[in-house]
C-alpha cells in the first residue's frame, strides 16, 4: 500500500522582498524536519494518526510558526492555543481550545480523542484533563518570543486584531500548522494546531479547533487541514465541505479544494488555504493567498518544500 504525508505552516501574505535567505533557510529546515519526522513513522509501518501528531509537534516546537512556542499573544499578553485531530478510522476526533500551559496542544487533542468519551475540551477543563494524565505544566514564558510581543504592541497601538502592516515577511500570514497523512494500511488522518490571532479577546476560537471547519479525516475519502482567517473557514465549514464534494460528487481533491478556496471562501473575503490528501496518497495544496509554508513526501518518497503560491 502507498503512504505519504503533507504539512503546512500557515498561508497568507508572505512577501519575498522581506524574506532574508537566513530566515527562509530556517523555515524550510523546520518544514523538512517536520515532514520527515512524520514520514519515518509511516515508513516503519506506523499509523497515520501518529505521523500527523509527530509532524505537528515539530512545528509546535519552532518559533517560526504560530502554534506552540511561536504562538501569537492575546490582548492580555497571554498565549492561548487551539488544536484538533481526526482519525479516518471511524472518524474519531479530539480537540482543545484556549489552553495556556501545554507545550504540545496537538498531543492533548489526541489524548482527548483516545482517552476520553469527549471530542472537545476547553480552557481550564482541558488543562485539568491534561494534568490528570501527567502532561507537564509549561510556563507561559516558554511560549514568549520578541517577535510576537512586538506584533501585539503594534496592533494595540492601532486598535487592530489583524495585521495591517508587516515588519516580517509573513506578518500577514494566518499561522496555523497542520498535517495530513495516509499510512500503508489505507488509514487517513489530519491534525491542526494554532495560537490564534494576535490581540484576540473574549476567548475567541477559530476554525483550527473545530472538527469539520479546520480538520477532517475519513478513510476512503480525504484528510484535510486548513489555514486562514478562522471566522470565514467556520462559516463555510471548509474541511467537511471538501470531504462532502469528494464523497458525494466524486470530485478529485484538487477540484474540490480549489472550488471552495477560490470560490465561496474567496467570495466572502476569506484568505488562506488548505492541504488535502486522498485515499491514494495524492496531496494537494490550495491557497488564494501569495504563499503557504508547505512540504510533502509523496508515495515515491520524494520530498518537496515550498513557500510561495507561484512555485510549481
Automatic annotation (TrEMBL):
Leader sequence residues: none
InterPro entries, per database record: Ntn_hydrolases_N, Peptidase_T2
Domain of life: Bacteria
Stated name of the protein: Isoaspartyl peptidase/L-asparaginase
Amino acid at each position: 500500500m502507498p503512504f505519504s504525508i503533507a504539512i503546512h505552516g500557515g498561508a497568507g501574505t508572505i512577501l519575498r522582498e522581506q524574506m532574508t535567505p537566513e530566515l527562509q533557510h530556517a523555515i524550510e529546515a523546520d518544514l523538512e524536519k517536520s515532514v520527515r519526522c512524520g514520514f519515518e513513522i509511516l515508513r516503519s509501518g506506523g499509523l497515520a494518526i501518529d505521523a500527523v501528531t509527530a509532524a505537528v509537534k515539530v512545528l509546535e516546537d519552532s518559533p517560526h510558526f504560530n502554534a506552540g512556542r511561536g504562538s501569537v499573544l492575546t490582548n492580555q499578553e497571554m498565549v492561548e492555543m487551539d488544536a484538533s485531530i481526526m482519525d479516518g478510522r471511524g472518524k474519531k476526533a479530539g480537540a482543545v481550545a484556549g489552553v495556556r500551559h501545554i507545550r504540545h496542544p496537538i498531543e492533548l487533542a489526541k489524548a482527548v480523542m483516545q482517552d476520553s468519551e469527549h471530542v472537545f475540551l476547553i480552557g481550564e477543563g482541558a488543562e485539568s484533563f491534561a494534568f490528570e494524565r501527567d502532561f507537564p505544566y509549561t510556563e507561559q514564558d516558554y511560549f514568549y518570543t520578541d517577535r510576537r510581543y512586538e506584533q501585539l504592541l503594534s496592533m494595540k497601538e492601532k486598535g487592530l486584531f489583524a495585521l495591517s502592516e508587516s515588519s516580517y515577511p509573513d506578518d500577514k500570514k494566518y499561522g496555523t500548522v497542520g498535517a495530513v497523512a495516509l499510512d500503508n494500511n489505507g488509514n487517513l488522518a489530519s491534525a491542526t494546531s494554532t495560537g490564534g490571532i494576535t490581540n484576540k479577546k473574549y476567548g475567541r476560537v477559530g476554525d483550527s479547533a473545530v472538527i469539520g471547519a479546520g480538520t477532517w479525516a475519513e478513510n476512503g475519502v480525504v484528510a484535510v487541514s486548513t489555514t486562514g482567517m478562522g471566522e470565514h473557514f467556520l462559516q463555510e465549514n471548509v474541511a467537511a465541505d471538501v470531504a462532502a464534494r469528494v464523497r458525494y460528487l466524486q470530485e478529485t481533491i484538487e477540484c474540490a479544494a480549489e472550488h471552495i478556496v477560490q470560490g465561496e471562501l474567496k467570495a466572502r473575503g476569506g484568505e488562506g488555504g488548505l492541504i488535502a490528501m486522498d485515499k491514494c496518497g495524492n496531496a494537494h495544496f490550495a491557497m488564494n493567498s501569495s504563499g503557504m509554508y508547505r512540504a510533502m513526501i509523496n508515495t515515491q518518497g520524494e520530498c518537496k518544500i515550498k513557500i510561495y503560491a507561484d512555485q510549481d
